[in-house]
Amino acid sequence: MAYRMILNETSYFGAGSRKVIAEEVAKRGYKKALIVTDKDLIKFGVADQVIAVLKDANIPYEIFDEVKPNPTVKNVKAGIAAFQAAGADFMIAIGGGSSMDTSKAIGIIINNPEFSDVVSLEGVANTKKKSVPVIALPTTAGTAAEVTINYVITDEENVKKMVCVDPNDIPTLAIIDPELMLSMPRGLTASTGMDALTHAIEGLITLGAWEMSDMFETKAIEMIAKWLPKAVENPSDIEARDGMATAQYIAGMAFSNVGLGLVHGMAHPLGAYYDIPHGVANALLLPFVMEYNKEAAKAKYRTIAEAMGVDTSSMSDDEAADAAVKAVKDLAIRVRIPQHLSEIGVPESGLPTLAQAAFNDVCTPGNPRQTNVEEILAIYKKAF
Ligand SMILES: NC(=O)c1ccc[n+]([C@@H]2O[C@H](COP(=O)([O-])OP(=O)(O)OC[C@H]3O[C@@H](n4cnc5c(N)ncnc54)[C@H](O)[C@@H]3O)[C@@H](O)[C@H]2O)c1
Ligand SMILES: [Fe+2]
Prior knowledge:
The protein is an alpha/beta fold. Helix content is 51%, strand content 11%. The chain contains 14 helices and 9 strands. The protein has helices at residues 21-28, 39-43, 46-56, 73-86, 97-111, 186-205, 211-233, 238-258, 262-274, 278-293, 298-307, 317-334, 351-360, 373-383, and strands at residues 10-13, 33-36, 61-64, 90-95, 123-124, 134-138, 150-155, 160-165, 173-176. Strand 7 and strand 8 form a beta hairpin. The radius of gyration is 20 Å and the shape is globular. It starts with 9 loop residues before the first strand and ends with a helix. Bound molecules: nicotinamide-adenine-dinucleotide and fe (ii) ion (FE2). Residues 11-178 form the Alcohol dehydrogenase iron-type/glycerol dehydrogenase GldA domain. Keywords: NAD, Oxidoreductase. Its cofactor is Fe cation. Pfam families: ADH_Fe_C, Fe-ADH.
């Protein structure tokens, strides 16, 4: 058995850490940046906090801001054209998972043009060359796309969220600056934070988990339980923002290398068919799938409960497992995550199609309990 660990070349953490871009760009000899972001981040002045660093250091750049949440093949193709037109030699991704994932796809295709149709990148693509260098600055505390070897692009034509797994895509530099997260509204803080919790829990119980990944995921769960309510309830609490920023990165360090499970498998079709934000989909499904996986991952559920602050010393294994599910449910309610699919515009008639797509998703085989389409449909129905 060989356990693989792929991480960024360099990463920086802490309030104001975005300022290191100036010296890193000079040291690496990069010439011109394409900034990959979205229109809201321009509008809310989040991208400007990074652009100010480039201006101060006289680093040339152009902006591509056409990324949409749940980014599409069309977004990627437009980004490739923008990179080429700009004459850029590196990218700065500013945003949530959507902007960072789009930059990864652009960077891979620029250096591996045989994949320029984008859709052939789905799954584990056999690219030969590393991506164009990407400096990734997350503005949400959730996806950890700045440290993962995955990116998720929606194939509009086939109504599918394609999960692409490729070590060549990992951003060279990750800068986790919680000041970029202060402007997140409560709902976004909550849903992206619950995405991070889902990564930590699925990464802990996934079939590929081992001692080192368990160490990261357990710590991430502990930090998210501590900091997420504070970040949601007091959005300007920089200590809470910093705690969440670091926690979601730690979760990513592990899940990127060991895989996820059925929550993500079931969340992806909700994004593809109904454009449900990724964090909301995961947060809503997490307690239902935890209930389903309970027997298959019982010992780890005690770890989850303990990391979430429950004293399980006098509990049986069953009681501790129930306590883990309850702690997750309570946290979701506290940060006001919707509780049912019917509340977020998913029609009951769509559930069978979702169940088939979830069964085929790249994340599903990592689930600790072997599953099938009928059982997935039953979980969607419970969540409905
Ligand atoms: N690469 C991976 O490993 C990985 C892991 C999990 C999810 N994903 C993917 O990431 C995407 C979701 O990313 P996300 O949840 O980070 O959200 P997102 O990037 O889709 O952004 C959602 C919205 O939040 C806004 N926003 C972001 N930061 C903000 C801030 N600081 N202040 C105000 N508004 C802000 C954006 O402008 C956008 O409108 C999905 O496509 C999902 O499938 C990727
Ligand atoms: Fe996720």
